[in-house]
Predict the 3D structure of the following.
Amino acid sequence: MSGNGRRSARSRIKSSADVDEFDRRRNSKPDREVRKDRIGDHSFIRILNVNIKALLGFVVLAFFIVLFLILHLMKPVEDAQRPRVVTPFPAPKIMDLPQFQGEHKESLYWGTYRPQVYLGIRARTPQSLVAGLMWIGVKDGRYFMRHVCQDSDELSTYGWTHHNGRDYGHQVLIDHGMTLATSFLKSKEDGSGYGGDWTVRIDVKSEKWNEEMLRSAHLFFYLADEDGNALSLSGDILDIRENSLLALGSRMDVGGWQLHLESVDDLEVHYSGFRTPHIHNLSDLVQESLGEQVRKFGRLQLPDTSDNSPNILVFQISAKVPFKIDIPFLSGTGLKSSRVEERLNSLTGTSLTRELIEKQNEFDNKFEKCFNLTSKVDSESLIVGKAAIGNMLGGIGYFYGQSKISLPKNNNFKSHDNFISYWPAELYTAVPSRSFFPRGFLWDEGFHQLLIWRWDIRICLDIIGHWLDLMNIDGWIPREQILGAEALSKVPEEFVLQHPTNGNPPTLFLVLHDLVSSLKRNKFTSMESNEISSFLERAFVRLEAWFQWFNTTQSGNEMSSYFWHGRDSTTTRELNPKTLSSGLDDYPRASHPSGEEHHVDLRCWMLLAAECMHSITELFRKENGLEKEYGSTAKLLSDFDILNQMHLDKAHGAYFDFGNHTEKVRLSWKEVRAGNNYPTRELVRETLEKPELRLVPHIGYVSLFPFMEKIIPPESWILEKQLDLISNRSTLWTDYGLRSLSKTSSLYMKRNTEHDPPYWRGPIWMNMNYRILSALHHYSQGNIYLEKQTKTHKKLSY
């Protein structure tokens, strides 16, 4: 920013406005003649005054009555005009349950809930204080700013080696010879404000001492207030040898707060303050400020200046490598009972070191208790396992905003845009990828929770509750949650709009099925069992609506058939039109999308959902016929003969989709006319023969869904055929897991467009391999193919 908006911290003193004193009214003597006239009419004046007061009172009362009626009459009109797609489901929210309030809510208030950056901290509230780390990396003799997780940074390692999802995490980042180890710790002590305190330790080392650019490191730790509250520096000059306090302020949620910096190493500290409503472009602001300093003064340092009333403060911390810093945040300061010094000491130095060691030991012990792997796998596998759960929990984020929903062409809603906004909502969720997909995806979350519920059932229920509360009145949940400016900044425009006709695999039923089964087997404590039961009772009406949405909107043209909606039947640029709603994106389906398709994977997902709903009704002994209804649906969908009639290819012993299909399609370069009639070339799909209704002959994950869902009878010859497909290196088997698509497929590892490399056309996906392993384990429990299945299960496990 330029002009007088920026000034030094020394001049940031708030000036109080002078209070003007008003002149007293002059007391003038009334004219005696006038007073006489008034006395003569005195009785009339009094009667008139009484009538005016009564009239005014009546008018005011009438005004409020009319206003009340208008507001209450308009609300139904507004509700009638509001499209159903953005109308919340009319039932009590799951997250309003008492078990998610009080101590539980406060214990999860602060966290590393910004998975899209290498280190980011925020609270679970829509307008939070937000903290984060940037640093200057060196690559090929040039400086680069690191902040947002992205593969183009080419870090050889980044990720949480330990994280318990609540109050502790440890992360290692290796950036071209420089190693940063970041530790996060949360504490709730006497004197703390709501949510307690937290601290970050950053340990910087370098392997390349002989390189001048890596002898010193430049870190940038920032604090931002999304609510726009002004942040205050501790003083004009930041000298942590004299005073560790960097910044302070006050908020409604945590009260007074302070941010400190402590280190035994020799540090140089500079700062910049910014006033901006957005933080998703903070990297650019910092780089612009540094660039200006380099051009003017030849110094790679922030200018020690600030905008008026900054809501973002960035602190540059520079030192010779190696060095270590502690950055504690204290809440509830400013009171005599705050115990600031004691709390500060416990979150820095040797006290912090001891606490971090203790937390790591607790993590290791809990890992062994939850998964019992020490005697089963080697030490390297244990490290990988701990990193897997650590990254899953460390990748949990909190988001707030409004999804953009695509408007149907025949809608009556008046809008200049092609979308309508969902209601403002919050989402607490794990994410599939911190670099590519740092946001909530509905079908991914079911797989995430298969791991998380075994670690922390309360976090699991909290996450599922947030997702189910996003349901609209029709029982639909947007499959991809792009909430807030930070999340939106990572998404290409073509994927922003959510389509209310499109679903996503209801994988949350995987977790719920596990929970119900474990409840019946008394796997939980009494308190956990009560909380799970309360959750399921509150969630049941939403789960019912979700099931019915799938059962009605995704049903096919034959009984017990289903197909994924949302495929583009008009595209000329895709080799095989994607099925994003299935979660399997470019997995080969019928070459020509139509309403006559039958998708075998969706049929199996519906069986899982029906079985889960049936088990919940059994658990709570529902007496309104629901138990019988869901039981009948599950029985129909598990009917082996019907499944085989619709989807089995007997020659391969494999299950295929059905639809309007031809194998003779290809992408060819064609010359087209672009803007200003300029000629250019692009890949366009060619169909070389007329498609026909048939099975779609591609062996891959979809072919194994009936096997995963354990529909195939143990004595069936088809089961042996499935085992052959799994174990055959010419089809699916590799030393690293099963391929998503057989090497024999005509689309194996083929690009779908000029810019879309193969995604589900050969690459190995862990979630599907997990489900196949589960089925192998199930079938290995005593049948005629026992030896073969046990051997295959063992090989795939390792």
Q: What stands out?
A: The chain is about 35% helix and 20% strand.
